[in-house]
Amino acid sequence: MGYRIAVVGATGNVGREMLNILAERQFPADEVVALASRRSLGTEVSYGDETLKTKDLDTFDFEGFDMALFAIGSDATKTYAPRAARAGCTVIDNSSLYRYDPQVPLIVPEVNAQAIEGYREKNIIANPNCSTAQMVVALKPLHDRARIRRVVVSTYQSVSGAGKEGMDELWDQTKAIYNPTDEISPSKFQKQIAFNVIPHIDVFLEDGSTKEEWKMVAETKKIIDPAIKVTATCVRVPVFVGHSEAVNIEFEDFLDEDEARDILRESPGLMVVDKREDGGYVTPVECVGDFATYVSRIRQDSTIENGLNIWVVSDNLRKGAALNAVQIAELLGNRMLQKA
To answer: What pLDDT score does 185 carry?
Structure first.
């Protein structure tokens, strides 16, 4: 028996990717519907070899649907997610709205699959922030071995994390630099993004950090261990797709870099590419369209007693958003079968 699935926000970057991944992974669906706002009504989107016409989210009846994968902003999610949940359709939400709700599990299947048991409280499951998702996949197996005390992470986040508008702005500004008659004026981002980096993602908080940085702290604690200390600096870079992270880890126990490399190689969702030679590492361009989170540059940090440095790269539209949501749907589907 297949499932009835709704993809909410099907015309956006993440919604389209959800449809692609559902088809690629041959998710057992008897029916998939694409939902969008009224202004996108009738827009065609691809689902494998099929073409779906979007339906109006505002009037859609979720009764009889098993799961809804949400890829819309928090404001719209606040309206439509409870409606779907009340109709018996389990919501897998990609926005930040429910991530910090103690009654809503925040899931990365390779890391804390067991936490899904709490989804019935609100019939909603939260997807983590894109930068958090790829980092915790790499951190969890190391934490299981040596207990992580502190993480210092600097991110290099692609413009697709800001949606289609972010990608368009990088494209338009890059062209404008080579055409002196065109004006380079920031719109989506706070400053010029072409040939530049911006240490500012989301809004500033009172302590000087940005909300994106706060998300990485709060979500890592919820997903892995509340005792882990995390400090983050999140930076937008002129890359279309693919987030990168330089992660410094301090452990309670010593962990040798060779053992860490072996642990990561054997861990689900990870690929280790770590040769100490020119090009012996993975960059964002190389991870686009891939399911895996890549780890490179694994090495001891000699400045602290039990330290390690790693470089983590992933397709943010996939593991950071759409893939993780589909993996949650797979996890939920298996759980439903086991309970049947």
So the answer is: 87
